[in-house]
Amino acid sequence: MKGSLGLASIGGVLRDHMGKILCVLSSHVGIQDVILAELLAILRACELFGLRPNLANRPLTVISDSKTADSWFLGFIPGNNSHDQVIGDI
């Protein structure tokens, strides 16, 4: 399934287990399919999480507002078959 093409931006918030904001991300990504933009936001959040040494060896829970992006993203996590709004712990 494809979304519609258009000028797109991504955004997100990285929080710790207590809800404290660690990082806010926002970026223009050009003309993109809306689902691809959702996936780019998830990927960027994962990259930023990985760059924080203080978060090494900690679980990551990804939350998205796109069920389609969730389903696509889940395909990249071996053994994960949950299709909740909380994508899963990775």
TrEMBL record:
The record's section on Pfam families has: RVT_3
All residue ranges annotated as the RNase H type-1 domain in the record: 5-69
Query: Species lineage, top-down?
Result: Eukaryota, Viridiplantae, Streptophyta, Embryophyta, Tracheophyta
Q: Which InterPro entries match?
A: RNase_H-like_dom_plant, RNaseH-like_sf, RNaseH_domain, RNaseH_sf
- Kindly list the GO molecular function terms attached to this UniProt entry: nucleic acid binding; RNA-DNA hybrid ribonuclease activity
Annotated protein name in UniProt: RNase H type-1 domain-containing protein
Check the record and name the SUPFAM superfamilies matching this protein: Ribonuclease H-like
Q: Which organism is this protein's natural source?
A: Acer negundo
Q: Which Gene3D superfamilies match?
A: Ribonuclease H-like superfamily/Ribonuclease H
